[in-house]
Amino acid sequence: MSRHDIVFIGTAILDTVIKGFDPEPVSSAGFRAESGSINAGGEGVNGSIAVAKLGMNSALLCFLGKDQAGDLIESELAKHGVDTGYIVRPDGHPTPVTTIFVAEDGNRRSITNNAHRYNFHPEQYAEAFRDAKAVVLGSLFRAPFNDPEVVNAVVSEAHESGALIFADTKLPNFAKLSLDDLSGSLPLIDFITPNEDEAKYYTGEEDPEKMADVFLSKGVRNVIIKLGGRGCFFKNSEVSMMLPAHGIDVVDATGAGDNFMAGLVTELIRGSDMEDALVFANACGAICTTAVGTGTALRSREQVLEFIKGQR
Fold first, then answer.
1. Is 156 exposed, middle or buried (0-12, 13-18, 19+ CB in 10 A)?
2. Which candidate among 39, 221, 283, 304 keeps its CA 20 to 30 Å from the CA of 259?
């Protein structure tokens, strides 16, 4: 029997969110913004907390520094019932901190630093995910998954144990890999979920179906292209479908993709068909954008189902 329904492997970050930043200085050393907040973030944190809120057992395998930022993140995870027993906290490496500027339309830009480069080698902790029903790689193409050997070791172990393997993607910020660099790992991935910009970058295509075709040709079994306000496109070897986005007023899009992933994985593990799982995932992503912060708006599976009912 699985110890965890879903194990996330990815980054844990302290997010400083600046909303409504005014680039006009008020003095030689000062600027203004509408608001500022500090939140536990990173795709591993966002996804594992969302899974717990949606009623499933989740764990996080990640790195945190032995500092106040790391303490805050671990406390937030524990508060939501996420298993923190596999968090790696070595000496000498600070917790990554990101500053995020959120525009009026909800889009954002972020500033990272060298702490984001730390690779904690999750393949050395296979006991954390060996018995999971699903394993989620939070940021394929970024640390720790910007090393082909690390990616292959993790997905091989997860595949051998019978877990469904999900991989979200990010644009590179330090080391740069191509799809060909991961040729041995991609056929072991059950679902990959790039957003439109990431899919363009890695495939060189502009059309969502052509983007999906490139990933499928590399061996990935199911491809979901997240299209923001236009919804998402799904394709595998048997079927393709376009799912429209839910109508909402966006406040902050930070973490929407991570909440989308949490909704997708939980519903598929529950036995939902692909279309229903995608509708649910779209709803999780939409709800996330209605408040500042990655985990502020989403509360429960019942909330998501009511939201979908209201949209219909």
1. middle
2. 221
3-state helix, strand, coil in the chain (%, to 5): 35, 25, 40
The CATH architecture that domain 6-21+32-311 belongs to is: 3-Layer(aba) Sandwich (3.40)
Q: Could you read off the pLDDT of 89-117 as tens digits, one per residue?
A: 999 999 999 998 887 776 778 888 888 88
- Residue 2: pLDDT over 60: no
The strand pair at 232-236 and 222-226 is best described as antiparallel
Where along the chain do its domains lie?
6-21+32-311
Residue 280: C-alpha distances to residues 24, 221, 235, 287 (Å): 41, 20, 17, 11
User: How far is it, in rounded angstroms, from Cα 224 to Cα 7?
Assistant: 20
For residues 146-161, average pLDDT: 97
Compute the distance between CA of residue 219 and CA of residue 181 in angstroms, rounded to an integer. 13
List all residues 6 or more positions away from 64 whose beta carbon is below 8 Å from its beta carbon.
Answer: 12, 70, 73, 74, 87, 88, 89, 95
pLDDT tens-digit profile of 246-261?
Answer: 888 888 888 899 999 9
C-alpha 231/C-alpha 83 separation (Å) is: 31
pTM confidence score: 0.91
Is the sign of the CA dihedral 175, 229, 100, 67 positive or negative? Answer: negative
Half-sphere exposure of 271 (CA within 13 A, CB side): 0
Please name which of 284, 251, 274, 294 lies closest in space to residue 44, comparing C-alpha atoms.
294
With H, G, I as helix, E, B as strand and everything else as coil, classify residue 203: helix
CA distance 13 to 148: 23
Nearest of 10, 181, 198 to residue 87 by alpha carbon? 10
Q: Would you tell me the crossing angle of helices 43-53 and 256-270 to the nearest 10 degrees?
A: 50
Q: Name residues whose C-beta falls within 8 Å of residue 151's C-beta, 6 or more positions apart in sequence.
A: 137, 140, 145, 182, 185
Asked which of 18-32, 98-112, 261-275 is least confident by mean pLDDT, the reply is 98-112
Question: Which residue's entry shows tokens 């969110």?
Answer: 17
